[in-house]
Amino acid sequence: xxxxxxxxxxxxxxxxxxxxxxxxxxxxxxxxxxxxxxxxxxxxxxxxxxxxxxxxxxxxxxxxxxxxxxxxxxxxxxxxxxxxxxxxxxxxxxxxxxxxxxxxxxxxxxxxxxxxxxxxxxxxxxxxxxxxxxxxxxxxxxxxxxxxxxxxxxxxxxxxxxxxxxxxxxxxxxxxxxxxxxxxxxxxxxxxxxxxxxxxxxxxxxxxxxxxxxxxxxxxxxxxxxxxxxxxxxxxxxxxxxxxxxxxxxxxxxxxxxxxxxxxxxxxxxxxxxxxxxxxxxxxxxxxxxxxxxxxxxxxxxxxxxxxxxxxxxxxxxxxxxxxxxxxxxxxxxxxxxxxxxxxxxxxxxxxxxxxxxxxxxxxxxxxxxxxxxxx
Length: 376
Ligand code: OSB
Ligand code: MG
Prior knowledge:
One of its GO terms (biological process) is menaquinone biosynthetic process. By secondary structure, this protein is of the alpha/beta class. It folds into two domains: 8-123 and 361-375, 2-Layer Sandwich (Enolase-like, domain 1), CATH 3.30.390; 128-358, TIM Barrel (Alpha-Beta Barrel). It is built from 13 helices and 17 strands. The protein has helices at residues 67-82, 91-96, 104-121, 126-130, 149-162, 177-186, 205-210, 229-237, 251-260, 270-273, 276-288, 302-311, 361-366, and strands at 8-9, 12-28, 31-45, 48-53, 86-87, 136-138, 141-143, 167-170, 192-195, 219-220, 242-244, 265-268, 293-295, 335-336, 346-348, 358-359, 368-375. The chain has a seven-stranded parallel β-sheet with strand order 7-8-9-10-11-12-13. Strand 3 and strand 4 (48-53) form a beta hairpin. The longest helix is centred in the N-terminal third of the chain and has 18 residues, at 104-121. The two termini are 22 Å apart. The model has no long low-confidence stretch (mean pLDDT 97). The structure holds 2-succinylbenzoate (OSB) and magnesium ion. 2-succinylbenzoate binds next to loops.
C-alpha cells in the first residue's frame, strides 16, 4: 500500500528517557548543565516509524516545562488523543492539541515524530515536507558562561578556527561589559552576539545601552522571559537589534511582538513554539513582514538536531542559527552519521528520504533509563 494516497494512523507511541553527558558543561544565566536527561518519542504506523525529541530542560528554568512534566503530559493527555487516530497531513496533529494550554515542548515531541513518520512513510525528505528550499544552512555557536575569561577566549578561538559564521556568548550581570570588552579587543571583527536569558530589567538600561559600543549582531532576550512590552521600550533606546527567544511561544506572540516592535530579530525554536506546524506559521509570518529569523537550539541530541536542520532549510532562515556539530556536545551522538559542519561553517541539508540521520537504536537502548509504550 502507498502512504501517498492513504491516511496515516498511529498504532503505538513509545516514550523513553536517555541520559547523555555533555563533553563540556553548559552554563547560562539560569544555571549549569553537565548531563542531559532527554525524552525521546517514537510513533508507529503500519511498519513505518517516526522519531521525536523533547527539548525540555531538566529543571523549569528556561520555561515552565521539564522532562518530567512532559512525560506526564504525553502519557496522560497526548497519547490518549493520538493513539488510533489517522490524518492526511501531519499539521492536523497540531489541531488536535489546540485545546491544551502551554506544554509546547511536550506537544512538539509528539507532533514532530508524526512529521518525521510522514516523511519516512512517503519516502520523501523531511525538509521538503516542511517546505524547505535551502540546501545548506549557515551555522553559529552558542558559548556558555565559563569559569574564567581565558577559558572563554580559548573556546571562541576553537569555534572561529572551526569556521562557524557567528559566535554567541551567554551573559549575565557580572559577566557582561568587561567580558565583551575583552572579546572585542581580541576579536574586533567577528560576527558576535550575546544572550542574557532574561537576566536584566529596565533598571539596567544604562548598562545595556553601553553594549552598543561592541557592534553586536543582536542582544538576545535581555529582559523578562514572558515580556514583549519592556523589550519594546528598550529597543527604542538601543541601536543594537534585540532578538526575542523565550516569549515567542506561538504565532500570536510573534505577531504581537512584531506589532509592538519589541525586537528586530526572532529566534525560532521548535520545542518552544509547540512543533513544526507552529514554527512554519511563525517563519511564514516573519518572512512576509521582513523579520529575520534563525533557528535556535536547546542542546539537542541527534534527533532534535536533525529536525532543526530540516526546519532551517525554509527560505527565511538566512541568519546563522544555533545548530552546530554533534561533537561540540556529545562524545557519541544518537544518530548516524553525527552532524558535521564544513570548515566554512555550513551544514548540508540531506536531500534523502527522512532526515538523512538514522537513530542508532542499539545505542539508544543502552543509554535508556526508563521507557513506556502506549497502544490501542
Ligand atoms: O537561550 O538559546 C538559549 C541552551 C539551553 C537553553 C536555552 C538556550 C540555549 C543555547 C544553546 O543558547 C543553543 C545550543 O547550542 O543548542
Ligand atoms: Mg536564547
